[in-house]
Amino acid sequence: LNSIEGIGFKAFYPAGVEQDYNLIFIIITKLQFILNMIIVLLITYFVSYYVLKNIMLSKNKDYLVFRSFGATKQTLNNIIKIEFSILAIFGYLLAVLFVIVNEINGSFIPKYLRFYKVIDFILLLAILIALVLLLISRFNKKIFSKSVITSMNGE
User: Fold this and answer.
1) Burial tier of 127 (Cβ tally within 10 Å: 0-12, 13-18, 19+)
2) Using one digit for the tens of pLDDT, what is the confidence trace for 34-61?
3) Which distant-in-sequence residues (6+ apart) come within 8 Å of 100 by Cβ?
4) Calpha distance 102→105 (Å, rounded)
5) Would you say the pTM of this structure is higher than 0.85?
6) Which of 30, 72, 74, 144 lies 20 to 30 Å (CA to CA) from residue 100?
7) Could you report the per-residue pLDDT of 13-29, keeping only the tens digit for each?
8) 19-47: burial string, b at 16+ Cβ within 10 Å, e else
9) What are the phi and psi torsion angles at 7 (to 5°)?
């Protein structure tokens, strides 16, 4: 290109332009991927919030019985954190298994597995655990905000 322009001709090098053109698509694809990831995380948060809230409300009486037997706040916090962390990990593993089966069988659901790396799966699991712990901390404040007798009566 420099040689041709050096002798007085104007030259156009499509390969060089195409590289910049591909760079724009790569940036747009990465931004779309990040946006999709944020949407998936928000949907996951709200679905998990709804499900965990219902599970926690159904187990509220169990935790109140533990409190009436003298369980400390720290003991109940640890029990709830371990229980729901295990549930979150199990649910996450089921979701990953579903994605892998989808990738193998080639169903109508888009194949996203090729866009993820192992670190992405680890990061997603860490965010999910953090969200679960956030929900649990809100629930634990609610459990210990009332007395055992008031909570048992449903007031």
Assistant:
1) middle
2) 898 888 878 877 887 787 778 777 777 7
3) 113
4) 5
5) no
6) 30
7) 666 555 555 677 778 88
8) eeeeeeeeeeeeeeeeeebeeeeeebbee
9) -95, 5
33: left (phi over 0), alpha (psi -120 to 50) or beta: alpha
Task: Determine the residue type at 48.
Answer: S
Tokens of 64: 């109140």
Burial of 64 (0-12, 13-18, 19+ CB in 10 A): buried
Residue 68 has a CB neighbour count (10 Å cut-off) of: 12
What are the residues whose beta carbons fall under 8 Å from the beta carbon of 91, sequence distance 6 or more?
48
Rounded Cα–Cα distance for residues 145 and 134 (Å): 17
